């Protein structure tokens, strides 16, 4: 049966790699519809539920999308709550076949969200749970070659040695270095690519990623790290910029997953970070999801055409704040005669 | 009241969607006579922004009909946009439309894919402008990338050409799909011709009748369409091997009774194109010069015509052949081609033709019956023969249903003429008044299905009983609704082993009875009378509704009242049961009652508009008609058998005989209980025997008074001849079968030859008889 989520999210024709940056407020959630012959694999990278910022109710949307099946894969870039919120409910109501995660062991402070991820991992066959490690090879995760439909991917981070090093730290240090141990993955299809950076910070890029993978970092679409935070470029507002990463990535489009800046408790996206992004892309090609509560669709077809567009209908249909009932409910009375009385004088 | 006043909430929502849309950048909006907006669809493709000017027009029946999107060359200047009105918008759009020559764009520049019915959904579907705009955006992206969302399996190529012939339609019959030739000349002929003067609309429907593809052999042979059962076409044309070279064909081509159309196989489904040169390139599978060579190969003698008909035969999305015809109309002032021309000159000459797409549809039995698929299996039904007895109101509708289902052979029997009182509930209309009903219905069914064979017999079935003997009778459906005639049909059909369904509308059409009679398996019409008299629980009695008027025709025959609504309902039910029977040959029921109202003995469940009951009734053990044709043996005890021989020996050289008394058994056996002798006053000579009636009656009464046994027939001896029934014997025993004073209409007769060898026969009302085994038991 057709429904809004399927109609909207599944590509209209075969052979399209669709990436949907979902508006989830202060957090990240990216849906990949990966071509697999005439079918599509459904992959979710991170998840968040943010009622305050009127984000999308991912659970409702994914339940409709996966009405007849489940998510093929959930990828968690790092176990922060704004990248994991709702994971247990998604698993319970939608189902998840496999999980890839960064392998970070969080401190007690973030234990709650990790616990939920752990519960999901516990329920999934161990063969389907992979720890992401930086690799020089395509389609390799946890030292195992696994193909994702018709596309290719390469995991750049976290490097194994970084994870080992952070694992040995005390809890506070581990927590402080979580963005250094964040997963970074590039997906490629028909000669076009998209780079998912999670919340990876400049330290990770400077010390572990750019130096080892510089030649492979070029990407057409960049998901701005850490909701457009300056942490991708520098320690703080006054610090020196690190832009070797941007030089290597050299994107045509940048997508920032953050609420409206005024409503972000971290002021995301940071103005100085946006200014750096705009050095590389045209204003028309920088998309800030929270600005007008849009989701951004990126369609790469089998000929390598890359089509990018914003969408407001997912918000209308699935936002926590959408006051409208679904359109079908709202207008289901069309065709039925209803009466609204007004005063009409009668008699002489 | 405007739509936006009536559906104000929807209107406001649509305006909000337009303003919030991220793919549509609105330039101007009007909200007076309707919601009208113009602006640009924005496409961000491969790093570049592309703008496509469009106009959004909400029709006056919004939101039931989705907004229309017109693709423009450029936006209207503000003052011109403001001057648009319901009256001038069509003309103004025509000036600014941009045609892309891709599927789904209409000649007026609008896009056609917006609406797509969602089956099995009862509520009204409304399409919001945001959904529409996202589809428009996707289509416009396709104009750049060449990749469009898939359309499903139906190519419907014609619908996507902006320049289409509004008059001509071509039905491509089986010959067009002949795979032996990769190109050829198709002969098409008009079968329907509606003129503007008569019908207010002009329409000419052509059908293909022959294909000439064997050019190399120089033998002018042709393939004809044999699937079409349009008999007048066969008579009209010279459908012989000499078709191409005959004078008749030549004149028919000259007078446009026959039109030549040229077809070529191409390797792929064509895209939408706009010029003759592109068409030629497609014929050459991408090579313009090769295409030209293919075109000239078969058209060079026919290029004088003002209009050339070119067809592309291509593999569709189901890997089947599909055809699309085009008309190349020579533009005014363009001369007829003369002399030898170079390829370039030829191409330029063709280019000076208007390219017009022609409505082309496959018209083959397979395709034609596709929409019955799953419910009426053409493969099975095309082999079936159904004979309809009576094509009145109900019979004509049932015939039509069976014809549309694709029953391959229909025989229509009815002696009546279509009267002016008939069309009000009959399949045939006023135009057929005065024609035999069987012929009128034939015309109408043929108009619905040209791929079945229909024969009309304007006969009185009672005068043409041999028709029922015919092997081509198939399954009969009697809708005569006349007890006498149906009684006759029943008897003959049982005898001939024919299967007949009987249906009639009762109680003013509120109720209908349908029953099937497979001889020896089902209760026949006579059986039902016995079941009725016995008040058998499986027989549903349908009492007459005395409140209804009784109409009589000129012969004082009652006309059963029922309006067309009831007739259609009942015919649908009857048609369905018969189609199911033809397809499965098995049924657990043989007797159905359908009713839209309760009556004594049939309670319609509460809140149920109609109900049906199905029963199974076997042949009644007392039914002489059924027994008559299932009986195969007569059993007599040795004592009774010897008794007859003794009677014969006793009288010496004269004939003698008597009556036979006994019982009909269910398993096809007659058991003789007693035989009388001739009686004291019998007439007995060497060549004649007449029993003593008084004596024999007294003998019979002894047996039949307590229903112990009944009269079975006669026995007698021959003195000089064998035991074959004589002419006199047959005459007398047939009379017994016919006369109502005898309880049987299937009397048996035992005749002894001069050597006392017996024969045993069973006799029917029509004078025929058959031999039975006479078993003498110990």
SSE topology sketch:
The complex is a heterodimer of chains A (348) and B (778).
Chain A (H helix, E strand, L loop, with lengths): L3 H6 L7 E5 L8 E7 L2 E7 L12 H8 L5 E6 L10 H7 L2 E6 L9 H13 L5 E3 L8 E2 L2 E2 L6 E6 L2 H8 L3 H6 L7 E6 L2 E5 L5 H12 L7 E3 L20 H6 L3 E4 L14 H8 L7 E3 L6 E6 L5 E6 L1 H6 L8 H4 L18
Parallel strand pairs in A: 3-4, 4-5, 5-6, 11-12, 12-13, 13-14
Antiparallel strand pairs in A: 1-2, 1-15, 2-3, 7-8, 9-10, 10-11, 15-16
Chain B lengths: L2 H4 L1 H13 L3 E7 L5 E10 L2 E10 L10 E4 L6 H5 L6 H8 L32 H17 L18 E9 L10 E12 L1 H4 L3 E10 L10 E2 L6 H6 L10 H8 L4 E7 L10 H8 L4 H12 L7 E9 L5 E10 L12 H9 L1 E10 L2 H4 L9 H4 L3 E5 L3 H13 L3 E5 L23 H12 L4 E5 L17 E4 L4 H14 L2 E8 L4 E7 L7 H10 L16 E2 L5 E2 L4 H21 L6 E5 L15 E5 L8 H7 L2 E5 H14 L5 E8 L4 E7 L7 E2 L4 E2 L2 H12 L5 E8 L9 H12 L9 E5 L5 E6 L5 E3 L1 E5 L1
Summarize the entry for a quick read.
The complex is a heterodimer of chains A (348) and B (778). Chain A has 348 residues and is of the alpha/beta class.
